[in-house]
Design goal:
By secondary structure, the chain is an alpha/beta fold. About 35% of the residues lie in helices and about 20% in strands. It binds S-adenosyl-L-homocysteine (SAH), iron/sulfur cluster and FE3-S4 cluster.
């Protein structure tokens, strides 16, 4: 495991480069724009931390930034188009001021066909770096500032050689009370539709001591909601099982909550369910992506469980963890999906009773097995299935939330929502609105009076 850790001498070299940049970067601003999942959001916090260490002031406003980094996602075509169109926004700005530096990183940068497109059609992107290069950011920035040509820091290594872990680089957290803590990186599952194993490389875990030290320090700093991150957290192999790690992370002194994302159904263990049931600091929320309710489609997806196994796990969670919220991801219109397969997905949704579903229309990804499968489904059919599933889920979620009426839930305040109403999140990660403002990051008890499909509303008691 040790050989994937970046040696401290390399980290020190980067810290020295960062120091040497401070004269040049004085008074300059940098902006990081993020697309994609929580992993990417956390990566952006690390990128911003490194930029700050190089002397930049971090801003949300790209119009006034001297360095702009676009952290991209490649999970579906829509995500890629959004990132490319964001990059396109800077053409005029770059033409007006050649000294501005524009960088692109993240999962899209890791894909060679997208890189070629960027090289050809986005000449104003000055530097590109891969998902395993964050610890070299000071060096990347220095090279980009000194070079007149485009700079590229990418390793296009095969899956089993790819991937590193670095400790000791700064993190600039977006929130003062909610924090992401990665426990493992990469993915070995190769679901046939998914780009993540190619974009993020093979699974590798941080050491449990590093994770525990980070969580303990966050709790001491007053963080109240900590999410342990990984594409498949149950594959954690940094010195103990993930269930044990979770239990330990949720055993420091103080009132706070620990969550995790994501658990693959094939190895959502009994041990993990027990930790959720028994440890009051572990949030009562299980995100367990099912992808399809049809065993035939699950097989084609290479998910390594079938409908029955998933139902068994879901029911076990519901039986063992009172008031648990179960959420999932579903892909509709996977190649060859028939009306019967789709009916299986609908009936599974009905039977399990998910609090929330993230539904996606299948998007073929270059280089994946499913993209080459026969029987790709027409968009019109996909749209109809997407709508039917969303309608069903709205009814299911409304029904489940009605059970909360009259109950009291503990809520971590997020201040106001965008309509100026006091709001926060419950342990189940449900959005809760209430009658009186509470400062961000404080816990309150709310008695629920009425509900929507994705909202609980009540009064503070
Ligand atoms: N590691 C997580 C998922 C990460 S990707 C897990 O295995 O559960 C988040 C979600 O995006 C997936 O659960 C899947 O539902 C969706 N997704 C991934 N690839 C997709 C594709 N090619 N088209 C549509 N949705 C996709
Ligand atoms: Fe993608 Fe499957 Fe890995 Fe999740 S488990 S990241 S869906 S390959
Ligand atoms: Fe997107 Fe990469 Fe996350 S593809 S979903 S940013 S791991």
């Amino acid at each position: 495991m040790n050989d994937i850790y970046i040696p401290q001498s390399e980290i020190q070299k980067q810290l020295n480069i960062a120091d040497s940049l401070k004269d040049i970067t004085k008074g300059k601003k940098a902006c990081v724009i993020t697309f994609g999942c929580q992993q990417n959001e956390n990566d952006s916090e690390r990128i911003a931390g490194a930029l700050e260490m190089c002397g930049y002031e971090i801003t949300d406003n790209s119009d006034i930034a001297d360095v702009i980094i676009i952290n991209t996602c490649a999970i579906r075509e829509h995500a890629e188009i959004r990132a490319l169109s964001e990059a396109g926004q800077f053409k005029g700005r770059k033409a007006a001021d050649r000294s501005i530096k524009i960088g692109l990183c993240g999962c899209m940068a890791q894909q060679s066909h997208r890189r070629e497109q960027i090289y050809k059609s986005y000449p104003y992107v000055d530097f590109i770096f891969g998902t395993d290069m964050h610890h070299r950011l000071p060096e990347i920035i220095k090279t980009a500032l000194e070079s007149k040509k485009r700079v590229s820091f990418i390793t296009d290594k095969p899956h089993n050689e790819f991937g590193v872990i670095s400790e000791g680089m700064p993190v600039r957290r977006e929130s003062g009370y909610k924090a992401w803590v990665p426990v493992m990186y990469g993915c070995n599952n190769f679901c046939t539709y998914c780009v993540v194993p190619y974009a993020r490389g093979q699974e590798r875990s941080r050491k449990k001591e590093e994770v525990l030290a980070e969580v303990e320090s966050l709790v001491k700093q007053g963080y109240k909601d900590i999410t342990l991150l990984g594409q498949n957290v149950n594959s954690f192999s940094g010195g103990c099982s993930f269930a044990e790690l979770l239990d330990k992370c949720a055993s420091f002194e103080g009132e706070y909550t620990v969550r995790f994302m994501t658990s693959h159904p094939k190895d959502a263990s009994d041990e993990l369910i027990e930790v959720m049931a028994n440890n009051p600091k572990v949030a009562k929320h299980f995100h367990l992506p099912v992808q399809s309710g049809s065993s035939r489609v699950l097989k084609l997806m290479n998910r390594k469980y079938d409908r029955e196994k998933y139902l068994e796990t879901a029911m076990k969670i519901k039986a063992r963890v009172p008031n648990v919220s179960l959420t999932t991801d579903i892909i509709v219109a996977f190649p060859t999906e028939t009306e019967t397969d789709f009916a299986d997905t609908m009936s599974l949704v009905e039977n399990v009773g998910f609090d929330m579903i993230y539904t996606f229309i299948y998007s073929p990804r270059v280089g994946t097995v499913a993209a080459k499968m026969e029987g790709q489904i027409k968009r019109e059919i996909a749209n109809v299935r997407f709508k039917a599933l969303s309608d069903l889920q709205n009814d299911v979620a409304q029904r489940l939330n009605e059970e909360f009426i009259g109950r009291t839930v503990r809520v971590l305040s997020d201040g106001y929502n965008k309509n100026g109403i006091p709001c926060g999140r419950s342990s189940q990660n449900k959005i809760v609105t209430y009658d009186k403002y509470v400062p961000e990051g404080q816990f309150v008890d709310v008695k629920v009076e009425n509900v929507g499909a994705y909202l609980l509303n009540g009064k503070i008691i």
